[in-house]
């Protein structure tokens, strides 16, 4: 963080051409939060406004927008998987690292098969996680299993790391009778009570103020739990993001905001999404500790999340992590990204700077993973995914009764009436409804 | 938004008038008027501001819930919140300005009694307040969120409609925010104009998954609010702000609940069914008396109390008996909740109807300031509607 402030000063000096370094120090935009208002003291020749505390100046000067700019990107490994600074090596065991790798590649394999299955018309929709596997696994591994997760929609790796089975993933995407969500939502809207992963909803950023509320409740339980909230750099433009940041800071919530800055909100590039220095630059404005990490470096993500989690719980305050990454796949199966970005650009990230290959370089260098291991793991993981896929496809859809339940905790008279009316109708017009596909 | 709200409060309430605009505005607007012009001009002004369009009729003193105390509506809300904080250690109350007691004084004393981590201010952001409340509830605690005016609930519309209402359904009952209750002052107040008078219940009535409740007075307010808080579904509780001080009843001190989705027949009658909720109930009660006295018509008065999911049975049973139905609310007529009631009743009671169902509601305009006496569905408009139904 100190380094960042240094950069800030530098920027001010360069752009504003101020002479007095003392003035600079005074004007150093105290990022530290003012927890309470200044006591009023009319004898001091200082501003006494309740909303700010600093010094008066007699020079007209606007603050440059790049006061907070060039926030550095924290990383542990270079692109070839070499540890840059040994003090930052998380020293994870071979088993742990192999597990990271297997989860990242399993996610990749599942994505390929489900993406293809949508292309063949077997499921209605899909969203791949290509290129962002490092952000998922690195952050998930740094949390406690009972920390509550509020996701956006592209965090399947977090669930996978926590142990959500392939059968559960497939059941949700197929909306079959085993879907924990009872077949009510589009594919990739996963959720698991057992794994403390709140069910995904489609509206963007709505989870952000909710995560603040959950973190507040968790803090009052005094149970050493934290909440993590994932979102993209596009969702960070929503009003709900502002609400969540501001509420969690003022109400002192043990919450980790994890922004996956993957370069695109569907087709909108980041330079049309915001004008400041990304999402991390917003943290200081809310009085929030912030960091930018290389999201394709699973160890950097792990270290940052681990430390943020530790401090969030110990100090009851929110942290903002901006993980820089790249969405290698299309936004969803309803999108063709070649309409707005070049194949060369995508290829660079796929071939030169991929979180999976970087971790593999690391493992190979240690002699933990060979070509043979890779070949047999690829084969095995593909087989496992295909088996789950076939099981899910064979399964019936959920009982249509579930159309009416869970609207309220109890069945209301109106809903009962509507349900009975549907059944009478379906009995009468049986041949027009695909009853045989559904559980009885 | 809140700036407007605060202006309104300070204008309306001399006791809350802690600061005005500039130094000269410390004295209350109303008091200044009285001092300056004791003649007829002040009389018309004060009439407009203080004579309401209804006569409040207190409910009989309830006997089944133990000792009672004289409370107005805001005090009965405070009493319900007090009971909740005392019995449920997870319960938290939050919103704009709730810490010092709230602009309508509904949370007075609670922060001192239960601590600042349980009764606290939030930043000024309605979508944040509701989103935060949903999160508190999802984590298993009890969330009571205050939106300072129902007129300002719209920034939270997405959180209410897309999130709170659908949480249980979309997760297959894995997660829910049933522990969330949203309170908001509601309805006309005599001088509230466009943005301190609205009755937005119909917007939320179109949203399966939430419950919408509106009390008519202090006894109902406490019992229904406690029901909303303990109900396992997210509830919106609209409080008729004109009744905060005007409505005074003997309210039980101990907690008690009044069932949701159950309308109450306040007065039995044989010729016309009058359905309303909140403030309008008191207009209807007066109209029922007038109809009896002037027209010899016997009216059955029903307080719907819960707008969603509503009690079709009680209403339809009554219309089967009377053959006539008048529904009245302050919100604009087109797409208002009266339309839903009317449609259901004609479907269920078509052959029992002696006259077309009548709706006396607000006009399809924004809520107008100085024209409020013309805008509101007052007793004369309702009485005229009854006449027309009888003579149909």
TrEMBL record, chain A:
Enzyme Commission numbers on file: 1.2.4.4
Catalytic EC class: oxidoreductase
Assigned protein family: Belongs to the BCKDHA family.
GO cellular component, one term: mitochondrial matrix
Designated name of the protein: 2-oxoisovalerate dehydrogenase subunit alpha
Biological process annotations from GO: branched-chain amino acid catabolic process
Gene3D superfamilies: 3.40.50.970
A GO MF term: branched-chain 2-oxo acid dehydrogenase activity
Subcellular location: Mitochondrion matrix
Species lineage: Eukaryota, Metazoa, Chordata, Craniata, Vertebrata
Co-factor(s): thiamine diphosphate
Dehydrogenase E1 component domain residues: 102-401
Oligomeric form and interacting partners: Heterotetramer of 2 alpha/BCKDHA and 2 beta chains/BCKDHB that forms the branched-chain alpha-keto acid decarboxylase (E1) component of the BCKD complex. The branched-chain alpha-ketoacid dehydrogenase is a large complex composed of three major building blocks E1, E2 and E3. It is organized around E2, a 24-meric cubic core composed of DBT, to which are associated 6 to 12 copies of E1, and approximately 6 copies of the dehydrogenase E3, a DLD dimer. Interacts with PPM1K.
Functional summary from the UniProt entry: The branched-chain alpha-keto dehydrogenase complex catalyzes the overall conversion of alpha-keto acids to acyl-CoA and CO(2). It contains multiple copies of three enzymatic components: branched-chain alpha-keto acid decarboxylase (E1), lipoamide acyltransferase (E2) and lipoamide dehydrogenase (E3).
UniProt KW keywords: Metal-binding, Mitochondrion, Oxidoreductase, Potassium, Thiamine pyrophosphate, Transit peptide
Catalyzed reactions: N(6)-[(R)-lipoyl]-L-lysyl-[protein] + 3-methyl-2-oxobutanoate + H(+) = N(6)-[(R)-S(8)-2-methylpropanoyldihydrolipoyl]-L-lysyl-[protein] + CO2
Signal peptide positions on this chain: none
From TrEMBL, chain B:
Reaction it catalyzes: N(6)-[(R)-lipoyl]-L-lysyl-[protein] + 3-methyl-2-oxobutanoate + H(+) = N(6)-[(R)-S(8)-2-methylpropanoyldihydrolipoyl]-L-lysyl-[protein] + CO2
Keywords annotated in UniProt: Mitochondrion, Oxidoreductase, Transit peptide
Occurrences of domain Transketolase-like pyrimidine-binding (ranges): 71-246
Residues in coiled coil: none
GO molecular function: branched-chain 2-oxo acid dehydrogenase activity
EC class of the enzyme, as a word: oxidoreductase
Subcellular location: Mitochondrion matrix
UniProt cofactor(s): thiamine diphosphate
InterPro entries given in the database record: THDP-binding (IPR029061), Transketo_C/PFOR_II (IPR009014), Transketolase-like_Pyr-bd (IPR005475), Transketolase_C (IPR033248)
Pfam families in the cross-refs: Transket_pyr, Transketolase_C
Domain of life: Eukaryota
Cellular component per GO, a single term: mitochondrial matrix
EC annotation from Swiss-Prot or TrEMBL: 1.2.4.4
GO biological process, one term: response to nutrient
Role, per record: Together with BCKDHA forms the heterotetrameric E1 subunit of the mitochondrial branched-chain alpha-ketoacid dehydrogenase (BCKD) complex. The BCKD complex catalyzes the multi-step oxidative decarboxylation of alpha-ketoacids derived from the branched-chain amino-acids valine, leucine and isoleucine producing CO2 and acyl-CoA which is subsequently utilized to produce energy. The E1 subunit catalyzes the first step with the decarboxylation of the alpha-ketoacid forming an enzyme-product intermediate.
Quaternary assembly: Heterotetramer of 2 alpha/BCKDHA and 2 beta chains/BCKDHB that forms the branched-chain alpha-keto acid decarboxylase (E1) component of the BCKD complex. The branched-chain alpha-ketoacid dehydrogenase is a large complex composed of three major building blocks E1, E2 and E3. It is organized around E2, a 24-meric cubic core composed of DBT, to which are associated 6 to 12 copies of E1, and approximately 6 copies of the dehydrogenase E3, a DLD dimer.
Protein's name in the database: 2-oxoisovalerate dehydrogenase subunit beta, mitochondrial
Protein source organism: Sphaeramia orbicularis (orbiculate cardinalfish)
């Amino acid at each position: 963080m100190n380094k960042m402030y240094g950069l800030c000063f530098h920027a001010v000096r360069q752009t504003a051409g101020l002479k007095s370094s003392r003035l600079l120090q005074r004007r150093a935009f105290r990022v530290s939060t003012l927890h309470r208002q200044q006591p009023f003291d009319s004898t001091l020749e200082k501003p006494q406004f309740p909303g700010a505390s600093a010094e008066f100046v007699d020079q007209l000067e606007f603050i440059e927008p790049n006061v907070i700019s060039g926030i550095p990107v924290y990383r542990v490994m270079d692109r070839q998987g070499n540890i840059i600074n040994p003090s930052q090596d998380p020293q994870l065991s071979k088993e742990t690292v192999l597990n990271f790798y297997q989860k990242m590649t399993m996610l990749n394999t599942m994505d390929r098969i489900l993406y293809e299955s949508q292309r063949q018309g077997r499921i209605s929709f899909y969203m791949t996680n290509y290129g962002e596997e490092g952000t998922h696994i690195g952050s998930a591994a740094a949390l406690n299993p009972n920390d509550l997760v509020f996701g956006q929609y592209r965090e399947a790796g977090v669930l996978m790391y926590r142990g959500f089975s392939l059968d559960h993933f497939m059941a949700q995407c197929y909306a079959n009778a085993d879907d924990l969500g009872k077949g009510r939502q589009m594919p990739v809207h996963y959720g698991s009570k057992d794994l403390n992963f709140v069910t995904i909803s489609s509206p963007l950023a709505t989870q952000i103020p909710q995560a603040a509320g959950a973190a507040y409740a968790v803090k009052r339980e005094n149970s050493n739990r934290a909440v993590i909230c994932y979102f993209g750099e596009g969702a960070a433009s929503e009003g709900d993001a502002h609400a969540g940041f501001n509420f969690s800071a003022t109400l002192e919530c043990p919450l980790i905001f994890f922004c996956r800055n993957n370069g695109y909100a569907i087709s909108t590039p980041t330079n049309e999404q915001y004008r400041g220095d990304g999402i991390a630059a917003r943290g200081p404005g809310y009085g929030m500790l912030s960091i930018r990490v290389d999201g394709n470096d699973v160890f950097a993500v792990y270290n940052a999340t681990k430390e943020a989690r530790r401090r969030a719980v110990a100090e009851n305050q929110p942290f903002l992590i901006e993980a820089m990454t790249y969405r290698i796949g299309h936004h969803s199966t309803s999108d063709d990204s070649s309409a707005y970005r070049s194949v060369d650009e995508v290829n660079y990230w796929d071939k030169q700077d991929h979180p999976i290959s970087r971790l593999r370089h690391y493992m190979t260098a240690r002699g933990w993973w060979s070509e043979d291991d890779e070949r047999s793991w690829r084969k095995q993981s593909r087989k496992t995914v295909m088996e789950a896929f076939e099981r899910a496809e064979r399964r019936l859809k959920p009982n249509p009764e579930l159309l009416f339940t869970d609207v309220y905790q109890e069945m209301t008279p109106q809903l009962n009436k509507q349900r009975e009316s549907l059944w009478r109708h379906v009995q009468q017009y049986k041949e027009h409804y695909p009853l045989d596909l559904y559980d009885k | 938004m809140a700036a407007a709200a605060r202006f309104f409060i300070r204008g309306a309430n001399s006791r809350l008038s802690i600061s005005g605009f500039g130094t000269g505005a410390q004295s209350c607007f109303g008091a200044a008027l009285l001092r300056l012009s004791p003649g007829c001009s002040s009389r018309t002004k004060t009439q407009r501001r203080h004579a309401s369009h209804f006569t409040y009729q207190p409910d009989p003193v309830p006997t089944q819930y133990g000792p009672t105390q004289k409370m107005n509506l805001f005090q009965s809300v405070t009493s319900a919140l007090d009971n909740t904080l005392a019995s449920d250690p997870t319960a938290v109350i939050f919103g704009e300005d709730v810490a010092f007691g709230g602009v309508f004084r509904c949370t007075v004393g609670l922060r001192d009694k239960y601590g600042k981590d349980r009764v606290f201010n939030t930043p000024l952001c309605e979508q944040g307040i509701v989103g935060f409340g949903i999160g508190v509830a999802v984590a298993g605690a009890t969330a009571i969120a205050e939106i300072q005016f129902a007129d300002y609930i719209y920034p939270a519309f997405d959180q209410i409609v897309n999130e709170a209402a659908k949480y249980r359904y979309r997760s297959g009952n894995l997660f829910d925010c049933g522990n969330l209750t949203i309170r908001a002052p509601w309805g006309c107040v005599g001088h509230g104009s466009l943005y301190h008078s609205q009755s937005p219940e119909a917007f939320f009535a179109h949203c399966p998954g939430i419950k919408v409740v509106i009390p008519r007075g202090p006894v109902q307010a406490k019992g229904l609010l406690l029901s909303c808080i303990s109900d396992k579904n997210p509830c919106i509780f609209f409080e008729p702000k004109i009744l905060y001080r005007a409505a005074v009843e003997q309210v039980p001190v101990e907690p008690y609940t009044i069932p949701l989705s159950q309308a109450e027949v306040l007065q039995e009658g044989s010729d016309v069914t009058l359905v309303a909720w909140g403030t309008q109930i008191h207009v209807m009660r007066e109209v029922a008396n007038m109809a009896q006295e002037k027209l010899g018509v016997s009216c059955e008065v029903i307080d719907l109390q819960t707008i969603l999911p509503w009690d079709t049975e009680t209403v339809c049973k009554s219309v089967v008996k009377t053959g006539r139905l008048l529904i009245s609310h302050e919100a604009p007529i087109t797409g208002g909740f009266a339309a839903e009631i009317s449609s259901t009743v004609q479907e269920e009671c078509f052959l029992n109807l002696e006259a077309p169902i009548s709706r006396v509601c607000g006009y399809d305009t924004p809520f107008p300031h100085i024209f409020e006496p013309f805008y509101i569905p007052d007793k004369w408009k309702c009485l005229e509607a009854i006449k027309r139904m009888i003579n149909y």
